[in-house]
Amino acid sequence: MTLETLTLELLPPTWRVHAAFFKGVVNSEFLQEQLLGRNAEFEYAFIDASAIVSRQQVLSALFNVAVVAETGGLQTPNVHSEVVCSLSPGKNIAEAYRRWGITPGTTKDIIILKILTLEPKSECPTADDVWTHLRKHVDGRPVPLTDDEIDGSTDWAKVRKYYKLNGAPALEGIQDDAGRKKEAETLIITSMALRGL
Amino acid sequence: MSNSPAMTEFPPPQILTYPASSAPVLIAQGAEGRLYKTTYLLPDQPCALKYRPSKPYRHPILDARLTRARILAEARVLQRCRREGVPVPAVYATNEKAGWLMMEWVDGAPVRQRINEWLGARPDTEAAQVEAQSADQTPLISLMQRIGSAIGRLHRTGVVHGDLTTSNMILQRPKEHQHNGHTGEGAMEKGKALEGHVVLIDFGLATQSSSEEDRAVDLYVLERAFGSTHPRAEELFEQVLQSYKETFKQAPAVLRKLEDVRMRGRKRSMLG
Ligand SMILES: Nc1ncnc2c1ncn2[C@@H]1O[C@H](COP(=O)(O)OP(=O)(O)O)[C@@H](O)[C@H]1O
Ligand SMILES: [Mg+2]
């Protein structure tokens, strides 16, 4: 198990994005403290996997950040916090952190993204550096970022509430579980694209 | 990519200059904007990017505001429709500042094209036509019904389209005929040429409205478009209205209004 480097269509060529997924994390409180203390070594997007339904959803959030960054429209301090907020269908930033960021004591499964922008002359950590750092500080079991692994973490009651999927006519008409999940993902991605605008 | 005529003649939005597994393709160029086919996140996920370039003759602040309002209005209507189960493309991403909207690629061809191909392929001689008539019409009637029910669902949702023509509906290629990422035409048997879901597109002029008048105008515009582009299928428009009625409870009042709208249309054309 190592760090995954994501390749995405139409990502700015200067972006390098690494991804990891840890389950059964016991030190979310420590991680949260590093974020609150603005510890520069902890510039990561930490995502609570219980509010995520698929890998595609994560890639989608990442893409949306690249899109707003392009026109200088970040709503939060940096690209990592922006990833967490871009998972939200609404405009409320504090609520987005609460729902998709880590909550000490509650968050167990964490999806982590590290975005590096390769600017000339800047020292850029390698994938190995990032992985070593994560292994040292995230106390949990690394798993691949796959739909199967995400499936085991999803809290559907939460997801349905956050994305207002309850009573959506589009879902009620679908009989098979896989089809309904796919359409739910599509509705989620559509509402992330709108960002409550 | 940057050397292809489509990319130099009309500069694409910046996003399309970034690396992707296949070069973007300019699909349509209208008065208001352009439509490109490109990929979303993964090489095997095609998407449509609708781009409204800024208009140099408009004041920049006004231009930015109009573009933003239009992109967001179209995206909101698509979101609402999708959630309500109206067959429309999903929205993947929006950049209202850069003036584009990225959505699901609907694999297929405009209904207009499919109907014309189908009508064109009919036997030429009158005798052969009469003979083929009864067997022939079933797929076309079924298509009319799918169109009517898509519009019924749209109106039920509280949205009127504003530019309902057979070019703004795509007959989605049934899944088993789909070949991801290509625009090429698969050879399809004649009997199956009109199969597939009807997906409504182009909500650039759509509004949220529950007015009978607005709904009737939607139907009238389609009826007129039908008469001029598919005269041989005109008599089948009744099937659209029939299935609209079956899908949408408030249809009878709209159809009564349609009578008025037709009347006004006729008067106007007599005067003009
Ligand atoms: N989501 C889509 N999937 C596939 N083709 C599309 C999609 N959206 C538009 N098109 C194609 O591009 C053309 C122009 O798009 P449209 O939204 O109708 O823009 P316009 O406002 O310029 O008419 C359509 O007639 C259709 O052929
Ligand atoms: Mg159009």
Written account of the structure:
- The complex is a heterodimer of chains A (197) and B (272).
- Chain A has helices at 28-36, 55-70, 79-86, 93-100, 127-137, 147-151, 156-162, 169-172, 177-194, and strands at 4-6, 15-23, 45-48, 110-117, 141-143.
- Chain A is of the alpha+beta class and 197 residues long.
- Chain A has a single domain (4-194), classed as CGI121/TPRKB (PF0523-like), CATH 3.30.2380.
- In chain A, a hairpin with an 8-residue loop joins strand 1 and strand 2.
- Chain A starts with a strand and ends with a helix.
- By secondary structure, chain B is an alpha+beta fold.
- Chain B folds into two domains: 5-104, 2-Layer Sandwich (Phosphorylase Kinase, domain 1), CATH 3.30.200.20; 108-271, Transferase(Phosphotransferase), domain 1, CATH 1.10.510.
- Chain B has helices at residues 5-9, 60-83, 111-120, 126-156, 212-229, 237-247, 251-271, and strands at residues 25-29, 34-39, 46-51, 91-95, 100-104, 108-110, 159-160, 169-172, 198-200, 207-208.
- In chain B, the strands form three sheets. In chain B, strands 1-2-3-5-4 form a five-stranded antiparallel β-sheet, covered by helices on one side. A three-stranded antiparallel β-sheet of chain B has the order 6-8-9. Chain B has a two-stranded antiparallel ribbon with strand order 7-10.
- The N and C termini of chain B lie far apart (49 Å).
- Residues 180-187 of chain B have low confidence and may be disordered.
- The A-B interface holds A 8-13, 56, 59-60, 63-64, 67-68, 70-71, 73, 168-170, 172-173, 186-187, 189-191, 193-195, 197 and B 14-16, 18-21, 38-43, 45, 72, 75-76, 78-79, 82-85, 90-98, 102, 104.
- Bound molecules: adenosine-5'-diphosphate and magnesium ion.
